[in-house]
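Troubleshooting: if your tokenizer reports a length mismatch, compare your output against this known-good record of 272 residues.
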Amino acid sequence: MQTPILTERRGGPGRGRLVARRVGDRTELAVSHASSPVRFVRPTFTGRHVSGAACAVCVVTFGAGLVDGDDVSLDVTVEPGATLVLFTQASTKVFRGRASQSLRAEVHGTLALLPDPVAPFADADYTQRVDVSLHGDAASCVLLDGVTAGRPAFGERWAPSRVDLRTRVRRGDRVVLSDALRLDARDGSIARRMDRFDALVTLASVGPAAVARAIGEGAEIARDVVVAASLRGDVSLARIAAISPEIALSAARSRLRNLPEMGIVDPFEARN
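Known-good structure output:
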């Protein structure tokens, strides 16, 4: 995978725009533009990781994290017949101070948003919004978001001041999925409330039945991971709590096993 040159910068707004378009039997980027601190990188997958009809884009922030004042906003359009996969190189670190990320997507084809969980450090105040509009019965999406305990090895376990995540999916004028997580230190110790768990991940889909079933069927309760899942029609949701980010992502990836049916490879495996 190509890696952008990292330069020193201050916190501030970052804007990105992507338009994915079906060209023949492949998806290409008709528009790709980003401003600091966000960059788009097109990975080169080889062998069995070739993604076929899908277009994969890695979203990178300078220094692999967000500093005080960063406000990243992505505007995405997936045109009919196109398949776009968005992922990150690694966990996005959120440093001390206030930072935010938002994504607005107009989807006529298929969108897979599969970033690593966010890692908020001590005194971070982080807001994230994901809003997806599906147009027509053929439009679909697979969404992953999550948050980790930060950096426990440095004494910063669940030490942010606030984490506020919200994901909403509409089909036409109807909200078909809405999920939110808010952790606020003013409500009491976050670390105490998280007990033994160091990662929370949410996986959702609206679309192909096989993918929805794999995500939304079957609960799991063990010492190191707990999964609560639900399925209604073509809408599925799985909430995962685990004692480490690696275990949480492993549980999520096991429920993404049907992605090849959508022409999508597992970006977590392909980037290694």
